[in-house]
């Protein structure tokens, strides 16, 4: 028993995990600041306090690290468990929780900086933009579409085109707040205004996709 534990927790493994986490943290900070081309593996290694060889041992190239950093950022703020359907609670509450997490993610300074870098056309490529899309927005859309599908199956929502409804939900959430922030002309947004925006968006979404009155399936509103 003792031997088995020693093998599973052998020397070097916790340190390896710590180094990987440090590399990811450095990448999450540096890519939004300097863009993909402006961020070297040497700088990431120095920021993480490891050798460049260690960076490459965990992530085979810079593109792989970029993808992992974007994915990690999204998973931190919008974990897969956020989209688990709770049939005992109101669908409204779950939609609001998803909306708050998404709004917080896209309005974060790091997200805004990275968005500007990727849309500036400087030092970016279609492949890099696609990698960002796959690691971030596509993943979130996929989880949310599955959530909507499960709610439709349970009779709590009535949606004919789930991908379109999903895109509408996130577009509504970004709204003018996100557009103004991208332009650099947004004043600080209060928690009260954020909450009003989230609830109004969810209310709008439910008015569009809640089952019609008279249907057998109850609506958890």
The biggest beta sheet is recorded as: none
CATH superfamily of the largest domain: Tetracycline Repressor, domain 2
> Could you tell me the mean pLDDT?
87
Distance between the termini: 52 Å
Tell me the helix content: over 70%
Question: What would your notes on this structure say?
Answer:
This protein has two domains: 61 residues, Homeodomain-like (Arc Repressor Mutant, subunit A); 132 residues, Orthogonal Bundle (Tetracycline Repressor, domain 2). Helix 2 crosses helix 5, helix 2 packs across helix 7 and helix 3 packs across helix 4. The chain is globular. The relative contact order is 0.11. The protein has eleven helices and no strands. It has 221 residues and is mostly helical.
SSE blueprint:
Elements (H helix, E strand, L loop, with lengths): L1 H7 L4 H22 L6 H8 L3 H7 L3 H16 L13 H17 L1 H12 L5 H10 L1 H17 L8 H22 L7 H19 L12
Helix pairs in contact: 2-3, 2-5, 2-7, 3-4, 5-8, 6-10, 6-11, 9-10, 10-11
Offer a few descriptive terms.
single chain; 221 residues; mainly alpha; Arc Repressor Mutant, subunit A; Tetracycline Repressor, domain 2; 2 domains; 71% helix; 0% strand; disordered C terminus; DNA-binding; TetR/AcrR family transcriptional regulator
Short description:
With 221 residues, the chain is mainly α. Helices cover 71% and strands 0% of the residues.
